[in-house]
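User: Round two. Same drill as before: sequence, then structure, for each protein.

Assistant: Same drill it is. First protein:
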Amino acid sequence: MAITHRSRNRSRSASSGATGARTLSGAQIVLEVLAEQNIEVIFGYPGGAVLPLYDEFFQRPSKTMRHILVRHEQGAVHAAEGYARSCGKVGCVLVTSGPGATNTVTGLADAFMDSIPLVCISGQVPTHMIGNDAFQEADTVGITRPCTKHNYLVKDVRQLADTLREAFHVATHGRPGPVLVDIPKDVQIHTAAYTPLRRDTGAVRFRYRPTTRPESKKIHQAIDILAQAKKPILYVGGGVINAGGDSAAQLQKLATKCGFPVTQTLMALGAFPTNHKQSLGMLGMHGTLEANMAMHQCDVMVAIGARFDDRITGRIKDFSPHSTKIHIDIDPSSINKSVLVDLAIVADAGEALRALNQVWQEKRIAKPDIKAWWQQIDAWRAKKCLHYKNSTSTIKPQYALQQLDARTKGRDNVFITTEVGQHQMWAAQFMTFKKPNRWMTSGGLGTMGYGLPAAIGTQIAHPKATVIDIAGEASILMNIQELSTAMQYRLPVKVFILNNQYMGMVRQWQELIYENRLSESYSASLPDFVALAEAFGACGLRAEKPQELESVIDTMLKTAGPVIADIRVDPLENCFPMIPSGAAHNEILLGNEDSDTANSTSEEGMVLV
């Protein structure tokens, strides 16, 4: 649960009276602290309550800090998320009061669910007007209480510098998350003594990578359990990516040492190479048969930086019922919250992986004999759960993504963002991710409209990279205005729309669960995406037949500026495998064969569609 408070009457910093103090306005102090924190990019949108800050931007242009003007405040937060997720730095947002602040709520909730480190600075009406229903007043602290890691209302300019410093510390330490600082307009104008943060005084440095170390005793216990495993699995979550540093390398080292299969959550794709022979692919509702069945039948399960969310576990009482469960997580509140575990290790994922590798080596443990387990996994793999029936006349969405994956493999620096829906799950299934921080998607909140602004933030962080937003025709319209941002800053983001004319995942559920009652899931009036791209000044492309795909993808990748590629795909294709909501892993649906295929039940209890 988010912890919030209003500005406290804390004592001023011990160094506030030291040599080097200057009298500055609140707006100037904000910019000084942002410079202290090495903030290079701010995503924002001006308004009355933050005009003092924007005036300082104008008067004091910075060579090290740039402002990116978005077209909507939600887009600002998603752009900051993409920036933070792709480069491991803190995302920073600046918005005005009232609707400016309330427009950030979806983005803040998204960042909170997916543990993305952000600091959002919002303007507020002057302190003497708070509570009087002033123009563009909203209780920003109260509104954002459930969707931030921490938030502040600063009523005294003398508290401003320390509050901002604390905000960055909270956002980046422990489990990362969004923090909001609400600053009334008069606080931005008032003056106070400001002393720069000295780096040589032993003060806490604000870092992205948390450093919580595991208990040695528990690491030894975990190694003893792993050494005896006959049917083990490593269940990897986004915490491994959030840990940064060499965490992904440590994971691969451990997996190689012990020879265990590895499955990843949606947020962890790339933490372990998805094309590695030990990778089972993604776990969960639209994960692979081999990952879900291995989770169901394993005898030892190690969850690393994962929180056992419902899209992973399915029916809780039947989740991995035969396993000894080890849970490694930096957030103590995640331990035993959803799933009771046998051994809990509260630690940074990277530190824990490093310790596990060290102890494994110190004890000179031989690689466990799990040949029989791999034979069973290979039998599940042989079912080819991602198989689909291709077409020579209609573009299948899976085929479109396979072609996109194939035609981007020769590029060294490719980043993928997504919107939310069927296209997101197909992207997770069919795209290849060999490195961490190359996959930006909305996992916990499932936010339609995330992908385009996230791609913009990613492109800002990596100006020479290839950044592609895999989208659906419904999701892309949620924040299509951000294409104007891409044009203004000449950001060559590519939008690859799998256009099936439906809210695809909604339609799929209506077909499979609600007896094909397609209530309001068909988009009856869609724009011409090629013409829309051209209206923004971008390049618009379209493919309607499979033989047109190669040319469209190659043109998209070669085009110097922003591109929208409208890929007209089979409107009734469903995303499989699928575990129905409330079902267990061994009740997985396999499909995308001929529609008249009869249902049957396998020996494992799987329902084959």
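Second protein:
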Amino acid sequence: MGEQTVDSYSDPERLRHFMRALLSDVLALEKMIEGGCLEKGVRRIGAEQELCLIGRAWKPASVAESILPHLPEAFAPELGRFNLEFNLVPLPFRGDCLSQLESGLSEHVGLAREAARREGYDVLMTGILPTLRKTDLDFEHMMPRPRYYALNSAMKRLRRGEFELRVIGTDELIVKHDSVMLEACNTSCQVHFQVDPDSFAHYYNIAQVVTSPVLAAAVNSPMLFGRRLWKETRIALFQQAVDTRPTGHHVLDRSARVSFGDDWIRDSVLEIFREDIARFRVVLGIEIDEDPFAVLASGGPPQLKALQLHNSTVYRWNRPCYGILDGKPNLRIENRALPSGPTVIDEVANAAFWFGLVMSFAKTYPDVRDVFSFDTAKSNFLAAARQGLDAQFGWIGEKIIPAKQLIRRQLLPMAREGLQEVQVDEADIDRFLGVIDARVSSGRTGSKWILESFKSMGQDRDVKPTEKMGALVAAMLNRQVKEAPVHKWKLARLDEAEDWKNVDHRVEQYMTTELFTVHEDEVIDLVANVMDWRHVRHVPVENSDGKLVGIVSYRTLLRLLARSMSTTEGQPVPVKDLMTRDIVTARPQTTTLEAIELMRERKVGCLPVVTDDDRLVGIVSERDFLRVAAELLLSSLRRG
């Protein structure tokens, strides 16, 4: 969860002091490994759960500050004010540990839900909240903590420009943002696996190999801002959201702060820590009051605060972690690739699958590098994120195997053997691996459910994507609280989000984002044809900088036709000669009431929706509000 009292080091002298402490921590860890000071012979598992807070209209609710005081110490804030997270106490990896993990997750989610509902909100487990809007990522929605302000400041300084996101799937998303808040779109269920220091490299390499098929079966984040992207869009989103590498004219071998890695580990966890210190600049710092060698000399375990803080700003999908439990220092592997949701039982099934595969592979392959190339492991990871269960995996023996076939025929039996090896209760093995088997057999992952539900809600042009997103969230919550795994869920329906009492009625909820614009120097004939072809009554006009400078209405063209002014002295008429320059606009967060009053006052039939820098992001018309009024009336009549 990370230290909160931190600073973004721009002062060179303070930076040098922190770097010296960081290097000292690495040397101390090396001494601890050589001296056998780290815990051995103990297997533990754990989990960290991230949650979305939702409110009116099933949208993100930036209310974490009012919810957290009502929750136990296990809960902590996240980057976005619409998120929460909690850590579970680690469990011995044996017996009924999986049932205990499920109980712990369910109990804490229940506590969060109870606290949220007392304030009129709720919580949801999902990889990316479908109703998230770009305006939810404005700086005001960042959790007001020194750590997050410092992180944002440092990342922006290293980036030397805006953060860019480009993801291509069924649809395409290209967007820029001025802070690291894009990262706040992601919510995960991170699972932990404690390993001995002497065998860390062996287990870490295996964790890398088996993460891909587990991810393929666990995908739950196929959409962002209404666009259908990767089956697990979090993977692409997170890498780009905190990518500090500036673009340039030369090709440089620089790694992203979020990555799968670049090679196998050969001997020790120290290889990862040293590489990350060498590759990635310090972005956060704290005043270090610990001499790790003095602590070791006194017989105690050092906190290694500098190393832990730097490690928390390098986001490997399988991340090494140092920690202390009951006075004993240990090493663990943190799997960060698995999404939150769709239900607790789905999350524990994903974890059981991963834990079992790690144990089974460790016994079957003394050195996985002998049978697997790193490039294949990395390619498999990206294939799983992009395609989920439709992925084709490169596998042992240079075979190409469909994900579903690989999981059902080879990997589920291996996971069972791995769990049996540590004497996990047979009933738990049957239950949780049975969920994976049923999910893979049916093909119904969380992502598949979302995409099929979205498609089933139809292509009616009058149904806005925001309505579909709201229905998805409403349906997720309805099914999630019933705790049936996702492969048993019925598809979402539009009417599941019909309760207009919970709608906040803002322009962005109803605006059309599929825009057809023209340049101010285009011929007016183009506007007439666009209106005819696309059945629209208003066409926005942009200049060469992509900013809104005018609008042409259907009435304008009628006046032109009446005056027979399609040409002036035989020359085509440019759009800029006829467009309305005195444009009445709205912002995405403008309420519908304000928008309707503005349209009546200014006697206009539509409102272009623009950002603060006059970039067009949508358009809302009288027709949109007429449909809203009809739905409100119907809803009122049904209730009456």
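Residues 12-442 form a domain with the Creatine Kinase; Chain A, domain 2 fold (CATH 3.30.590.20).

User: Perfect.
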